[in-house]
Amino acid sequence: MSREFTKTGKTNKGPFEASVSANRQIGQLFYRLKLDFCDTAAEAFAAARPGQFAQLDLSRTILPVPEDIPDNLRDVARRNIVLRRPFSFCDIVCESEKTSVEILYKVVGPASLRMTTLSGGDLISIIGPLGNGFRIPDNKKRALLVIGGIGAGPLQHLAKVLTEEHSEEEVVAFVGARSAKELPFEGRLDDIAQSLGFSFREFAKYGINSIVATDDGSLGHKGPVTECFEQWLGRTRMVYEETIIYGCGPEEMLAELVRIASERGIDCQVNMERMMACGIGICQSCAVKCRTDDSNETVYKLCCEDGPVFDGREVVFNL
Fold it and tell me: Quick one: which of 240, 291, 250, 293 has its CA closest to 272?
């Protein structure tokens, strides 16, 4: 038996109107956007599960003032934003008359650049929640979260759900980035907390230890987070059949994570990223190559409808 968080039936997916209640900068290029939903939209997003996403219409969002535009985005900043953009959720809070959703985002292009200008009271058109999220099997005693960069968002949401709904499970988070400046968190905890394994408040508030790796060695393990993770597995005693791995990050990281899991017989789910023009399976632009059961043949599944969370064993990584 397992509990599966999926997009099913003919539930209303919008478009809905969300009101911006906060848009906080938490790093050089990282922000947390908080959106409030009321009425039918509040009901829809209250049921959203970790790994699902929404499509945001940013076509009417303004640009920052010229001096606030990063040099690497000056040439593309004025491009028209025609298509909606997909974002997963890092937190969802349900209250009596509204549902609040937080989105972790990084400024990487003209759409996310415009998002930085959103402020309290601004309205955004949103479709969602969409896709299939993480599944939490009933027979697991340990969940290992492996994060690469901006992949922290959906796994922060999953961390909250695991501790609230599966408090008997041990949870450990492994966080990787190119450097300490590329970690999408609001700052490290003090030395005492870190010595106990609590590096980031986003996980510490749920009682979850976090282990850090940076490519340049500016914080924690020097090297890829998968290398750090594999070394940790090698020195930690556990029953692999009672363990599950959840991953979100660059595809190269996910491919290596699946290799590590497969060699040890550990169940592994990965949150894939693809360009999504529509988010609802019409444009067919987000194909993921997958294996079929008991066959050497492969098929293509849609990241927006069949995913974005997949069983790691079924994904064919073409790196």
Answer: 250
- Position with higher pLDDT, 73 vs 200: 73
Cβ pair 133, 51 in contact under 8 A: yes
pLDDT tier at 196, thresholds 50, 70, 90:
low
Rounded-to-integer distance, Cα 123 and Cα 19, Å:
5
Handedness of CA 230, 106, 103, 250 (dihedral sign): negative
CA dihedral of residues 104, 174, 5, 250 (deg, nearest 10): 60
pLDDT at 1: 33
- Facing residues of 288 across strands? 301
Beta-ladder partners of 4: 135
Domains and CATH numbers, the chain: 11-130 (2.40.30.10), 135-273 (3.40.50.80)
**What backbone torsions phi and psi does residue 155 show, to the nearest 5 degrees?**
-80, -25
Q: Do residues 205 and 109 make contact, with C-beta atoms less than 8 angstroms apart?
A: no
Predicted TM-score of the model (pTM): 0.92
- DSSP conformational letter for 220: S
Strand extents, DSSP E, the chain: 2-4, 16-25, 30-38, 53-56, 85-88, 91-94, 98-106, 123-130, 135-137, 142-148, 170-177, 209-214, 221-222, 243-248, 267-271, 287-291, 298-302, 309-311
Give Cβ neighbours of residue 56 (< 8 Å, ≥ 6 apart). Answer: 84, 85, 86, 87, 124, 125, 126
CA distances from 306 to 114, 247, 271, 286 (A): 30, 17, 11, 10
Backbone angles phi, psi at 157, to 5 degrees: -65, -45
- What whole-number distance in Å separates Cα of residue 299 and Cα of residue 151? 26
Amino acid at 101: V
